[in-house]
Automatic annotation (TrEMBL):
Name of the protein in its database record: Uncharacterized protein
This protein's record includes keyword Signal: yes
Keywords assigned by UniProt, alphabetized: Gibberellin signaling pathway, Signal
Superkingdom of this protein's organism: Eukaryota
Source organism: Eucalyptus globulus (Tasmanian blue gum)
Signal peptide: 1-27
Any Gene Ontology biological process: gibberellic acid mediated signaling pathway
Family membership noted in the UniProt record: Belongs to the GASA family.
Length: 92
């Protein structure tokens, strides 16, 4: 009976550890909207009115933002794939 209890405790430890790992690895990934991150990135944009409009639109569409206030778009494919007619990045 003691062996079964030890097996149960190991299983529970593994289960909890794996749940924590997956929760940490998903944080901030595609599809995880964080309104404060969108606000931080969008409010730092130059040319406030047009950029704020489009930045908010992309936040709503992509459900995520890259880290920081500019660049790092390769972190989020949804942002990275949006380009202008000239092939320049569309998102701030």
């Amino acid at each position: 009976m003691a062996c079964f209890s030890r097996l149960q405790s190991r299983f529970l430890f593994f289960l909890i550890a794996s749940m924590l790992f997956f929760e940490i690895s998903k944080a901030g990934g595609e599809g995880s909207i964080r309104p404060e991150a969108c606000d931080y990135r969008c409010l730092a944009a130059s040319h406030q009115m047009p950029r704020l409009f489009f930045c908010s639109k992309y936040c709503a569409k992509c459900l995520c933002v890259p880290s920081g206030t500019y660049g790092h778009m390769e972190e989020r494919p949804c942002y990275d794939n949006w380009t202008t007619k000239e092939g320049k990045p569309k998102c701030p």
